[in-house]
Specification:
Blueprint: H1 5-14, E1 22-25, H2 28-38, E2 42-46, E3 59-62, H3 65-75, E4 79-80, E5 83-84, E6 88-92, E7 96-107, E8 112-118, H4 125-131, E9 136-141, H5 149-158, H6 163-182, E10 185-196, E11 201-203, E12 207-210, H7 221-226, H8 232-239, E13 243-246, E14 251-255, H9 258-270, E15 277-280, H10 287-298, E16 305-312, H11 317-330, E17 337-343, H12 346-353, E18 361-363, H13 367-380
Parallel strand pairs: 14-16, 16-17, 17-18
Antiparallel strand pairs: 1-6, 2-3, 2-6, 4-5, 7-8, 7-10, 8-9, 10-11, 10-12, 13-15
The protein binds guanosine-5'-diphosphate and manganese (II) ion (MN).
Length: 387
């Protein structure tokens, strides 16, 4: 679950971290009113769940009210890497002397948290990593031991943060780690972490990703969930409680289990097709769930063939077969469906499906065969003009 920059900064502020004062705005009039309250100059910042806003023209300094209006009008509606700007953050401008980079994330392979700090901030960290990997000081943090003040000071020295700012940066890092842990975040990134010309350390940007599985102990996260930007397909799937991620191909994918769904996406790619989505219907593939999944996929106008890949485990093949037959009876499907059914009681399941097979409902013995057939059908459907 991604936060907007300003939501991240508001979270930081609750931990006493220094962030610029600002206000959210949803129109040019609101932006102007905010700037009048905040005092000029201000920075007008696009709020979208993606980075690189500065380069895309989504971050603009405004010295007077006319400029605030002009920038707000220019940025609202702007497309930044496929995200349309609907919300702005107006904040008091900062006088930047130095730009650093700081982040905490999870290093799954090390089973520890990973902190990254660089005196070369304000640019994409990937670019720094490629050009000068030694400019990024990394620190692994044991989740049980945590991060001590001593470690922070050492880390700051390793990153060659200039002496004048070193102590303040070390304090910021210690507090930022507390935010990362307390908030159950998967990522907290500040780029740039600045030193102003007056020598103050300020967190000028924020990128925060929260672990959606932690909402049970963070009741305020419902408000963040409400501001997630999902595409229409993802919204519809989310409303049905389905694990769905929209992709941009033409083969709709339904599988049981996240691992199998990912493999299915891979196999579609492997045989030269492009998946329209990832969809995991989970353990029980009853008619209700299957119908919901088919509905979501059928509403995607890019879909030209549907691949249902089921491996029966605890759920038996015949239950799945009944679910598919019932679901296809309930939902009017525009695209041909290819089924691969294997695992527990697969033979019984296939037998149940047999009488229903047609040009619209096909079955293949293996995952690879089924993927080939679905990709074939998706290709053949090109230009057929399905609605
Ligand atoms: P991003 O491009 O999405 O990472 O957005 P940022 O919030 O990091 O802003 C991009 C760049 O705009 C920063 O790296 C700064 O150089 C610049 N910037 C942002 N806020 C201010 C500000 O208050 N004053 C000045 N002078 N520059 C700013
Ligand atoms: Mn940034």
């Amino acid at each position: 679950m991604d936060l907007f920059e300003h939501q991240g900064k508001e979270l930081f502020a609750r931990y006493g971290l220094p962030v610029p004062v600002g206000e959210a705005a949803f129109s040019a009039d609101e932006a102007v009113a905010a700037a009048q309250r905040l005092g000029l100059p201000v920075v007008v910042k696009a709020q979208v769940h993606t980075g690189g806003r500065g380069k895309a023209g989504g971050v603009k300094l405004a010295a007077d009210i006319d400029e605030v209006r002009r920038h707000a009008e220019g940025i609202l509606g702007l497309d930044i890497s496929g995200h349309t700007v609907r919300r702005l953050w107006i904040e008091q401008a900062s006088d930047i002397a130095e730009e650093y980079y700081a982040s905490f994330t999870l290093d799954r392979s090390a089973r520890q948290h990973l902190g990254m700090l660089s005196a070369e901030g304000g640019v994409e960290i990937e670019a720094v990593a490629a050009r000068a990997p030694e400019a990024i000081a990394r620190i692994h943090i044991d989740p049980v031991d945590g991060l001590s003040a001593e470690q922070c000071r050492h880390w700051v020295r390793a990153a060659r943060i200039p002496g004048a700012a070193a102590d303040s940066v070390a304090d910021v890092l210690a507090a930022l780690y507390r935010v990362y842990v307390d908030a159950d975040a998967d990522l907290v990134e500040v780029n740039p972490l600045i030193v102003t010309s007056g020598g103050e350390v300020v967190l000028l940007d924020s990128k925060v990703t929260l672990d959606a599985n932690s909402t049970f102990r963070h009741h305020d996260y419902a408000a963040y969930d409400a501001t997630q930007t999902r595409d229409e397909r993802e919204q519809a799937a989310h409303a049905k409680g389905l694990q769905y991620v929209g992709l941009d191909g033409s083969v709709g994918v339904i599988a049981n289990g996240a691992g199998l769904a990912m493999s299915t996406v891979d196999v579609v790619n492997q045989v030269g097709g492009r998946p329209a989505n990832f969809l995991d219907i989970g353990g029980g593939a009853n008619a209700e769930v299957m119908a919901g999944a088919l509905e979501v996929i059928n509403n995607d106008p890019a879909v030209r063939a549907i691949l249902i890949n089921i491996f029966g485990g605890i759920t038996r093949g015949e239950e799945i077969a009944v679910g598919i037959v019932e679901a296809t009876g309930r939902v009017d499907i525009d695209s041909p469906i290819v089924i691969r059914l294997d695992g527990t009681n697969a033979a019984e399941g296939r037998e149940l499906l047999e009488p229903h097979l047609s040009d619209a409902l096909m079955m293949e013995p293996t995952m690879l065969d089924a993927a080939r057939r679905a990709v074939d059908l998706a290709g053949a459907g090109d230009g057929a003009g399905r609605s």
